[in-house]
Specification:
The protein is mainly α. The chain has a domain at 64-118 and 147-293: MetI-like fold (Orthogonal Bundle), CATH 1.10.3720. It contains 14 helices and 2 strands, in the order αββααααααααααααα. It has a two-stranded antiparallel sheet. A hairpin with a 7-residue loop joins β1 and β2 (51-52). α1 packs across α14, α6 (117-128) packs across α8 (156-180) and α13 packs antiparallel against α14. The longest helix has 38 residues, at 2-39. The radius of gyration is 24 Å and the shape is flat. Residues 70-284 form the ABC transmembrane type-1 domain. It is a multi-pass membrane protein. It is found in: Cell membrane.
């Protein structure tokens, strides 16, 4: 045994460190995902016996108008959340400057990152309040009444997604700040020798070194937009009339309130498939771009 260990410790040591995480990931993520797909093929109230229905839940889902409303809202969330990486990068470039007082400004931008999502939802609920909220105070300066955004079927989704964008921008900013602190100083020095300044330095020297960080920021942002639940639950509970419901919240409603765990699992499976498809497509494009640049 000691001889076997000495001969193979170059891969046994990291394997043993990774093993607990792999076991936890397999039980919590992989096994749960497989179980969800299995449940989606049944009619189940969460308590009694499961009844096999095959693809019936998916057929019903394809004819469910609320599913398409939820899917459309997820797309709206995704489009709004795509603002987070570029804004986060811009803020990271600003607060990374060696200027007096920048540390205080940096700490202020960190605030939404340490706040619970529920807290952000409650705060923005007050901001949007058409009676005494901050939005009403701003509109009142011009002698007009603020719209009740969270009660409007057209604007409710945009209002909730805009509120959720605030902490997402802070998260992306922190990621890019970490990337900026790990830039290769030799490459920056070589760029300065070649006359690169301002935009040219950013485009040709800084941004290529942030490609990996950018991938993480975009991937996490997309996943955050697709799995949006907390803000909807706190600010609108899917209303008015289901107009701000997203797929994750519809899954929750169908499972918990309607006792249709099979149907809720079908929604979860579709949402998971959308996430996996995007990540696979994005990762494929990133690898292809890196190979072409190699």
């Amino acid at each position: 045994m000691p001889r076997f260990w000495r001969r193979n410790r170059h891969w046994l040591t990291p394997a043993l460190f990774l093993l607990p995480g792999l076991i936890l990931f397999s039980l919590v993520i992989v096994a749960a995902s497989v179980e969800t797909v299995w449940i989606s093929l049944h009619d189940w109230d969460g308590i009694g016996a499961k009844t096999w229905v095959g693809l019936a839940n998916y057929v019903e889902l394809a004819d469910d108008p609320q599913f398409y409303v939820s899917l459309k809202n997820n797309i709206i969330w995704l489009l709004i959340f795509m603002l987070a990486p570029p804004i986060g990068l811009a803020l990271a470039l600003i607060v990374n400057q060696q200027i007096s007082g920048m540390r205080i400004l940096k700490s202020l931008f960190f605030v939404p990152l340490v706040l619970a999502t529920v807290t952000v939802g409650v705060v923005f609920g007050w901001v949007y309040d058409p009676t005494y909220g901050l939005l009403q105070l701003i509109f009142g300066l011009f002698g007009v009444t603020a719209p009740a955004l969270l009660s409007d079927e057209t604007f409710a989704t945009f209002a909730v997604a805009a509120a959720a964008l605030w902490p997402q921008i802070a998260f992306c900013m922190v990621l890019f700040l970490a990337g900026l602190n790990n830039l290769n100083e030799d490459l920056i020095g070589a760029g300065r020798v070649d006359g690169a300044r301002g935009w040219r330095m950013l485009r040709h020297v800084v941004l290529p070194q942030l490609s990996q960080v950018g991938f993480i920021a975009i991937a996490v942002t997309v996943i955050g937009a697709l799995r949006s639940f907390d803000m909807v639950a706190v600010m609108t509970t899917g209303g008015p009339y289901g107009s701000s419901t997203v797929l994750a919240y519809q899954m929750y409603e169908e499972s918990i309130f309607s006792y249709r765990f099979g149907y809720g699992a079908a929604i979860a499976t579709v949402l998971f498939a959308i996430m996996i498809s995007f990540i696979a497509w994005y990762l494929r494009g990133l690898i292809k771009a890196e190979r072409s640049n190699a």
